[in-house]
Amino acid sequence: MTLPTPEAHVRDVTEVVERRSAGESEFLQAVREVLDTLAPVLAEHPEFIEGGILERLVEPERQYIFRVPWTDDQNRVQVNRGIRVQFNSALGPYKGGLRFHPSVNLSVIKFLGFEQIFKNALTSQRIGGGKGGSDFDPTGKSDAEVMRFCQSFMTELVHHIGEHTDIPAGDIGVGAREIGFMFGQYRRITQRYEAGVLTGKGVGWGGAEVRTEATGYGAVFFAEEMLARASQGIEGYRAVVSGSGNVATYAIEKVEQLGGKAITASDSSGYIVDEAGIDLDLLKQVKGVERARISEYAERRPGSHYVAGGSVWDVPAELAFPCATQNELTGAHARTLISNGVRAVTEGANMPTTPDAVEAFQGAGVLFAPGKAANAGGVATSALEMSQNAARSRWDRDKSESRLHGIMRDVHEATYDASERYGKPGDYVLGANSAAFVRVAQAMLEQGVI
Ligand SMILES: NC(=O)c1ccc[n+]([C@@H]2O[C@H](COP(=O)([O-])OP(=O)(O)OC[C@H]3O[C@@H](n4cnc5c(N)ncnc54)[C@H](O)[C@@H]3O)[C@@H](O)[C@H]2O)c1
């Protein structure tokens, strides 16, 4: 059999995905971003072409779409759509978060599930990739409404998940409160205390220490490693951070612990600038406890100010951490950051940087860390939560954080080494994609055509 060249093979597979998933713009963006970097790997491993690895990798193993009916506080019937995409289980059971946000659709969940395969491979934790969610909007809903929604969502999802098959966690709009409601319903329906079926649980009932902080902390650990390679550090640098949710909050906390100064946070309405450094207690109170708008922060904190609309990327800093949502940092934003002297951009969110912005950073010699490597600390700690659940044990904070730190160092090293091996040292996009792909492809090859 004559094999196509790696470049022709990538082109052929991309065309098939574009035809089969026409209109799924986020998913197509994520697929192209990975496939475009893989030709050098395929040149070294023709058996991956022969084994049809790419063709299989871009098609989810299984997808569920279901109705989620619930009643609001006025007793009106509401209906949302639930989705779970089980993308690839070559390395272990499907693992990936649930997102509750009005923008959720199949394309968004497939892009996140596809990214998750590679991210999970980079953690070395033996977990496959999946993702799910709903177009339910938790904003402005009462706790009781959120509970009824979560219970209805789980009443269907229960048929598809389990500690050895598929283990969801949180993402945008899904935090400890939602995981609690869903775990309660799972336990009630199955009559089993299967702690390892969901991660991000409360620490008093099976959750892991440092899971809440892990994605944000991990992103900063990754930035620290990347800067250290370039003989720099976090200390003394200013950081612009977008978002004010789970990832952003703990990225800010770790930047400050390491001697840097985080000066911004945002939500979908606008952003705040606090030149003295973000007051974390106030940020957690406003966004985490009160679930209020970010403008509240500026009202209560002298010396800070709020900008309606606009973008945190207009604020000069050496470090940037996009931690809100996909495609939030565009080519124009990248050019502003570059002209303001940014040194390193680390993705806390999934695919927050558009392809032209990534190209601009790489062209200008700015260190750029893709989310599938830099934000892997969250899912890695979720895997540690699963191990503790299986062993019925509980680690303290120090052990949990030091394991996270070690994993992020390993992810950085594997990513950097792969960038060197495939000819572009310091290209972390190439490094993350190729290191992860080889691990998944090898496992798929050894497990036969399934
Ligand atoms: N939670 C995790 O462990 C984890 C792990 C890896 C990656 N991520 C990614 O990190 C990002 C943030 O997730 P999170 O868990 O912090 O969620 P969250 O719900 O705690 O916070 C989301 C943040 O993004 C902002 N946001 C959402 N949509 C927006 C929009 N359209 N415009 C501007 N801002 C918007 C929200 O205001 C909020 O500040 C997502 O891309 C998510 O996929 C999360």
TrEMBL record:
Entries under InterPro entries matching the protein: Aminoacid_DH-like_N_sf, Glu/Leu/Phe/Val/Trp_DH, Glu/Leu/Phe/Val/Trp_DH_C, Glu/Leu/Phe/Val/Trp_DH_dimer, Glu_DH, Glu_Leu_Phe_Val_DH, NAD(P)-bd_dom_sf, NAD_bind_Glu_DH
Top-level division of the source organism's lineage: Bacteria
Binding partners and assembly: Homohexamer.
GO molecular function ontology, one term from the record: glutamate dehydrogenase (NADP+) activity
Glutamate/phenylalanine/leucine/valine/L-tryptophan dehydrogenase C-terminal domain span: 208-448
Cited Gene3D superfamilies: Glutamate Dehydrogenase, chain A, domain 3 (1.10.285.10), Leucine Dehydrogenase, chain A, domain 1 (3.40.50.10860), NAD(P)-binding Rossmann-like Domain (3.40.50.720)
Keyword Oxidoreductase: yes
Originating species: Leucobacter chromiireducens subsp. chromiireducens
Parts of the chain that traverse the membrane: none
Protein name: Glutamate dehydrogenase
Family stated for the protein in its record: Belongs to the Glu/Leu/Phe/Val dehydrogenases family.
SMART domains: ELFV_dehydrog (SM00839)
Record key words, sorted: Oxidoreductase
